[in-house]
Design brief:
The complex is a heterodimer of chains A (about 260) and B (about 500). In chain A, the strands form two sheets. Chain A has a six-stranded mixed beta sheet with strand order 6-7-8-3-9-10, sandwiched between helices. Chain A is built from nine helices and ten strands. By secondary structure, chain A is α/β, with parallel strands linked by helices. Chain A has a single domain, classed as P-loop containing nucleotide triphosphate hydrolases (Rossmann fold, 3-Layer(aba) Sandwich), CATH 3.40.50. Chain A is globular, with a radius of gyration of 19 Å. Chain A is about 40% helix and about 25% strand. Chain B is mostly helical and about 500 residues long. Chain B folds into two domains: about 230 residues, no CATH class; about 240 residues, no CATH class. Chain B is built from 21 helices and no strands. The two termini of chain B are about 25 Å apart. The chains are: A alpha/beta (about 260), B mainly alpha (about 500). Chains A and B meet through strand 6 and helix 3 of A and helix 11, helix 16 and helix 21 of B.
Chain lengths: ~260, ~500
């Protein structure tokens, strides 16, 4: 049984911490994400969500510890890249390409030819809502929301086993948010894809993810298997956090 | 209100990200500014006696009057390329309760304090003082003349902004005006009609009737008002403050496919160069540099100093390598995190860059072959320089690239643009040019021309033979510096 579990883990972070100029922004003792899980990361600003994802993608160097992606140490080998894809922010887009060219470029990096990319893109007609393909615009001239759509779809291209999306719901219009939720659900229901999502929006994550981890100032403060009660629990937690901050402020004012 | 603007400006200056970091660059710019100031000042003081000596028959003032128009036109061209009206900085002000007129006035008045307006003062004021002293013209006349000249320079200041607004995105529209200038030049040349004489006569009237100096001042005021009107009418987010959207055309460069696994990167780089202002301009600069040989090859006194030809050869065959290569991988800075997270082996990425530059060297070398007209030794030197560039300089530049930390804005013009320039760029110039020249010079002087050529060529060939091992080292350096690069490229602002 234990052995079985070993085989099933996709991402492992051990003793992982990141310090910026004396301030610890992330400290995760142990976190395991099994294959095929849809994993949600929530937390307030500065909780360490983007830092965690950047560490997963080896974009920043961990102060201590390691991240293993399918048993590959990400900071030591590039072998995780072929099966991992991600969209963190607009620095993942190439501004002077049209969306079509961008998809083809990413496709090529993932060993997909033009025909593969075209048939792949057909599935996203509804998601794109006619605003992306064939508009004769460079990515830098698209709106923030449309740029995001391109980034998300490009991250799904080429059958990756791990998909990392940072704040995928932000900047999207309501229809696209709903479509994106359906998309992610479909992705995780039918296949072995491990999806990692971070969000400020508690409703969206609880709808999409089977497991939610709450980060606060770099620490894992809660690790929940999503159920009917999860949304309530999370809302209470964050409302409590707000109250706590208020209390701290008030008490410090009193001292003054 | 203006006080706030000025304090904001000051904060923008000393809080900019590059202020502390690129102090060296600041010092360099300051040095350039002082240098030009001195040159203009010395010229201003020396102009009167110099002209007197060169053209004893004529009044220096008359000569200056005649050349002033040419000077102003040249200044306009200079300003058109270098000076910009800092409109973008007012974007955050749009939503604040500040009258539009005030912001516009501020932007326009601020432009008066530009270095471009200060420089001519150093030239014309000493000249006017000197002329007054020498010719004993009435003080009032000379003052009026000076004011008129300064007025005209300020006119150029504002004309430039009007021109820029209109033509910055569409240089082709300038063509008719260019033709008019050429016609005037032609008329002048063939002594049909001299516009400079007309202009000089006008300035002489100012000396005779000093109150006429009000005319240029009125012109400045009118141009100010015009600018004000244009700016005010465009003071909306969707107008001038927003970048223009050009219709995109998809290109595939399918023929690059034959290069196999590096093909997607080559395609990407070609699009990068073709679709962005800064790299695109580099192509034209590279082609212009092809004429460099014309300066050196015909000169008799360089024939015994062949090492100069090595400099020319390295420069001409490698101009694209130098211009483009020194900013690798900063060209990709705006999406560098993506390049690092995507399924891109670093080695492949670098090999593609090396291939692109090598291709440019081969192409440029072919373009320089007509210089064989000046002797076979020149052809030989150029080919050897190309070999050296491919074998040694390309890896050296790529290696230096791993110390690039500065982001590059692809859409900015490269003229006087020091964005992305750091210590790495200055240091790499040394081995790039000086080492081959030194090697050649020593061998040519103490052994023979043939030996020098053979050694340079062998160095290049060695680099090509051991390319794999060298590229492996370069890749290691990129891997080591990866995090610092990602972090550096994220820093926007300057």
């Amino acid at each position: 049984m234990a052995l079985n579990k070993q085989e099933n883990r996709m991402i492992t972070a051990t003793n992982l911490s990141k310090v910026y100029g004396g301030t610890q922004v992330l400290n995760i003792e142990h976190l395991e994400i099994p294959r095929g899980q849809s994993f949600g990361l929530v937390g307030n600003n500065g909780a360490g969500k983007t830092t965690f994802f950047s560490l997963l993608l080896d974009l920043i160097q961990p102060t201590t510890g390691n991240v293993f992606n399918n048993d590959i140490t990400v900071s030591q080998s590039e072998a995780w890249k072929p099966f991992t894809s991600s969209f963190i922010d607009e620095s993942f887009l190439i501004g002077y390409l049209t969306p079509e060219e961008y998809f083809n470029f990413v496709g090529e990096l993932r060993n997909r030819n033009k025909a593969d990319v075209n048939s792949f893109l057909q599935k996203f007609d509804e998601f794109f809502n006619g605003e992306i393909l064939g508009r004769k615009k460079y990515l830098r001239d698209l709106s923030k929301g449309n740029q995001k759509k391109v980034g998300i779809v490009a991250a799904l291209l080429g059958d990756p086993e791990v998909v990392i999306l940072d704040e995928p719901f932000a900047n999207l219009d309501p229809s696209t948010q709903i479509r994106l939720k359906a998309l992610i659900k479909e992705l995780t229901d039918n296949s072995e894809i491990t999806v990692l999502i971070s969000s400020h929006d508690l409703i969206h994550v609880t709808e999409v993810c089977e497991r939610i981890v709450v980060l606060d100032k770099g620490h894992v403060v809660n690790d929940i298997k999503t159920s009917e009660a999860t949304l309530k629990e999370l809302e209470q937690y964050f409302a409590g956090a707000a109250v706590k901050v208020k209390e701290v402020n008030e008490s410090s004012e009193n001292i003054l | 209100m203006f006080k706030y603007f000025i304090s904001l400006q000051w904060k923008a200056f000393y809080r900019s990200a590059s202020f502390g970091k690129s102090l060296g660059l600041k010092i360099f710019m300051a040095f350039i500014a002082i240098y030009f100031s001195l040159v203009f000042l010395i010229l201003g003081i020396g102009l009167h006696p110099l002209l007197k000596e060169a053209f004893p028959a004529e009044e220096p003032l008359q000569i200056v009057n005649r050349f002033l128009l040419v000077y102003l036109v040249l200044e306009l061209v200079m300003r058109f390329m270098l000076q910009t009206l800092p409109v973008m900085t007012v974007k955050p002000m749009l939503s604040l309760p500040i009258p539009k007129g005030k912001v516009v006035n501020y932007v326009l008045l601020r432009s008066l304090f530009s270095f471009f307006n200060f420089l001519p003062l150093l030239l014309f004021v000493p000249f006017a003082v000197f002329t007054w002293y020498e010719t004993r013209l009435p003080l009032l006349s000379m003052t009026a003349w000076t004011v008129a000249v300064v007025g005209l320079i300020l006119c150029v200041n504002y004309i430039n902004f009007l021109l820029k607004k209109k033509f910055a995105d569409d240089l082709k529209a300038l063509l008719p005006y260019l033709i008019i200038v050429l016609i005037f030049y032609g008329l002048e040349r063939f002594r049909v009609f001299s516009i400079t004489e007309v202009f000089a006569t006008g300035l002489n009237y100012v000396i005779e009737m000093p109150f006429l100096t009000l005319l240029p001042l009125l012109l400045v005021f009118a141009l100010f008002k015009w600018n004000q009107k244009v700016l005010k009418s465009r003071f909306y987010l969707d107008e001038s403050l927003k970048g223009k959207v050009i219709e995109a055309r998809s290109q595939d460069f399918e023929w690059l496919r034959r290069f196999g696994s590096i093909a997607p990167f080559l395609q990407l780089d070609l699009k990068l160069i073709w679709r962005n202002k800064r790299p695109k301009t580099l192509i034209f600069i590279s082609l212009l540099i092809m004429g460099y040989g014309m300066i050196f090859y015909p000169q008799e006194n360089y024939q015994n100093m062949q090492f100069v030809f090595v400099f020319v050869g390295i420069f001409m065959t490698g101009i694209f390598m130098i211009n483009f290569g020194q900013f690798i991988p900063a060209w990709d800075s705006s999406y560098y995190s993506m390049m690092m997270a995507q399924n891109i082996p670093l080695k492949q990425y670098l090999t593609a860059k090396a291939a692109l530059i090598t291709f440019s060297i081969v192409l440029l070398t072919i373009l320089t072959t007509p210089y064989v007209y000046f002797g076979y030794n020149i052809l030989l030197i150029n080919i050897v320089c190309a070999l050296y560039n491919i074998g040694i300089n390309v890896p050296v530049l790529l290696f230096a690239g791993s110390y690039n930390r500065k982001r590059i804005d692809l859409e900015k013009s490269p003229f006087m643009n020091y964005q992305g320039t750091g210590a790495a760029q200055w240091l790499v110039g040394l081995p790039l040019l000086i080492v081959p020249i030194l090697v050649f010079w020593l061998l040519d002087k103490f052994v023979s021309f043939e030996a020098a050529i053979i050694v340079l060529a062998s160095l290049g060939l060695l680099g090509i033979i051991f390319k794999k091992a060298i590229m492996e080292q370069v890749t290691q350096s990129y891997r080591k510096n990866k995090y610092a690069m990602i972090n550096g490229f994220k820093q926007t602002g300057e």
